[in-house]
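Progress against Task 2.4 (sequence-to-structure conversion) is shown through the following example record, which the project officer requested during the mid-term review.
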Amino acid sequence: MPRRKRLTAVSGSMPRLLLCMAMAGAWLAGAVARAAEGELEQALELVDPYVLRVCADPRNLPFSDVAGEGFENKLAELLARKLGKTLDYTFYPGATGFVRNTLYAHRCDVVMGMPQGDDVVQVTNPYYRTTYVLVVPKGSDLETVETLADPRLKGKRLGIVAGTPPATSLATNALLGTMKSYPLVVDTRYDAPSHEMIVDLEEGRIDAAILWGPIGGFYAKRSPLPLRVTPLVKEVNGPRLVYRIGMGVRHSDQEWKRLLNKIIAENEAEIRGILLGFGVPLLDESNAAVLH
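Structure tokens generated for the chain above:
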């Protein structure tokens, strides 16, 4: 009897033990599967292998437009050639929701121009460095002004895009009283405040325009009125006005970022040529102008 009880006890415990082991195994397998799925989700780069899908604004020269006339369009064409891909765009106005509705909706794989340090996206190595600029008519008494602290700006009608870093500098230097403000956030399909600022400068409604370098350089290069573009690199106080610009990708797309970094490094001269052709004021790391 004792032996039979012992065997019964053992035989009765075995199913429970096996059940526990099976349940533990199933849990472990599920945990491993979930971990693997999570790692796969993190590692999976949903970048089109055959098409360079670019997120772009449809009407935002000198950067991009639907006709492919901006310098970011030309850079995208260069990238597509080097990658052996065809080129396609997802166009969306460059205002609130741009990144969310393009890059993070997986409708495209790269934003061609993003400032380094922007944590909304993962930014590649920079392919150019530039600054805000002061644009004035050549021959005016402001032609040799190099800083927003220059007393010659007192009482002058200064065009500024509201909410941009140099607007803070104008406040610091007590120049707000005579400034003309232009909106920052607009639907670029219908409004072009930077172009309006240059037209106001050409027609004498303002004495100077303070613009983001690529914009100021582009419009000055095409203006019928000879204009001087001065990079604002000598500001002592106030916000940072000089920025490095790279390309923006999703945070999960590590291999894609590395490939773009490689293309940028291998094609520096051609990229620089495109930018200079559009009048972008390029700076080296010492803030000296890059002219060729």
